[in-house]
Amino acid sequence: MNPLSSSMIAAAAWLTLAATSAPVFADGVPAPRAAKHAASSRHAPMTVAARKPNDSGVVIQYRLDGTAQVGRPISVVLQFDGVSDPAGATARLTTDAGLTLTTSSSLALPAGQRTTATATVTSDREGLAYLNVFVTQNGAMSIVAIPVTTGSAVPAMKGAGEVKSSDEGEKIISLPAKEPKEPK
Hints:
The protein is an alpha+beta fold. It has a domain at about 45-150: Immunoglobulins (Immunoglobulin-like, Sandwich), CATH 2.60.40. Helix content is about 15%, strand content about 40%. The chain is built from two helices and eleven strands, in the order ααβββββββββββ. The strands form three sheets. Strands 1-2-3-7-5 form a five-stranded antiparallel beta sheet, with no helix packed on it. The longest helix has 18 residues, at about 5-20. The radius of gyration is 24 Å and the shape is extended.
């Protein structure tokens, strides 16, 4: 075989492979090439929410566009994939105390389509609060809590308490009890 023709065959094979391959999301759906490159230059990547074996079957991805600041709205981009029920699925959004949702709190998710929505939230104080996403399909539910940290304060875990052993030798972490707050 001629060395020139084998290098030409290898080059042609490589070009064919490069031309036919496309980036693919975790759900197996290829991303549009132009949209992928445009989005990657302007936005952070989407975070894929953790799933449980008995959830709704809908894959939820999200990203915060920007940094949360007190009194200023921030966009949370949500993406839903894997709706297989012909009747579709529904998503309901709620927020923790300290965070206000200024967009619709419910979404209809059509079957067989990737749905992208933007939720706008505004924080009224520094700290950590969550945008909660409840997705229902075929009677099963997925729940995702999207963290929104406002300000420079980084949430820290409380002290681990005192480690003791039970009579059976089991390790127990003893934490002080809090006095319940009286309603205002």
